């Protein structure tokens, strides 16, 4: 049966087994992709339990929800195929050239990620716990559940201030034109880096 013709009930039967979630005090999540049947009616195209990948010895986890190019081609499920190829090929950085990435990130108690910059416009939404946003000028801003950070290619890091509970954010990253300040192009910078986090590949303009 073609995925673009399954019903909502049939979609639930096509769930893949989720990989191990690192956080034990946060709920499991599921992504529901919509599509169209042959009559043009909206359907649930597919159902994806979170597939987590661990970083920093299990202190940070990524769930790659969706990635695509501009403009996203929805014909014949080209966007879904593209996402699958990128994820299975293991070639996705934090951002993606000429497109968008939607990602869920879990942070262990007291974990602080690397100070970094991507050539992208990022929307970061706290959905569980609290997260500190650290900027390279020394500013620290505490974000509560429901708060949104709009990162405009700035050097920043994230820290979970809790000593007991995991925190969770959802990020949407969109590729941008090169940013130039005082004649200097500010490109992607992973700082100390994190093993397994690949370059985004959108910084060669």
Description:
- It is a single chain.
- The protein is mostly beta strands.
- It has a domain at 57-186: Jelly Rolls (Sandwich).
- It contains 2 helices and 13 strands, in the order H-E-E-E-E-H-E-E-E-E-E-E-E-E-E.
- The protein has helices spanning 8-12, 78-88, and strands at 30-36, 42-49, 52-55, 60-69, 99-107, 120-128, 131-135, 140-143, 148-152, 156-159, 167-175, 179-181, 184-186.
- The strands form 4 sheets. It has a 6-stranded antiparallel β-sheet with strand order 3-4-5-11-6-9. It has a 3-stranded antiparallel β-sheet with strand order 8-7-10, with no helix packed on it. Strands 1-2 form a two-stranded antiparallel ribbon.
- Residues 1-16 have low confidence and may be disordered.
Class per helix and strand makeup: mainly beta
Discrete helix count? 2
Question: Which range does the strand content fall in?
Answer: 35-45%
Weakly predicted, low-confidence segments: 1-16
CATH fourth-tier homologous superfamily of one domain: Jelly Rolls
The CATH topology of one domain turns out to be Jelly Rolls
Described by the principal axes of the CA atoms, the overall outline is globular
Question: pLDDT average, as an integer?
Answer: 83
The ordered string of helix (H) and strand (E) elements is: HEEEEHEEEEEEEEE
The description of the largest β-sheet is: 6 strands, antiparallel
> What is Rg?
18 Å
Question: Please, what is the oligomeric state?
Answer: single chain
Spatially, the strands of the biggest sheet line up as: 3-4-5-11-6-9
What is the tally of beta strands? 13
CATH architecture of one domain: Sandwich
- Ends apart, CA distance between termini: 43 Å
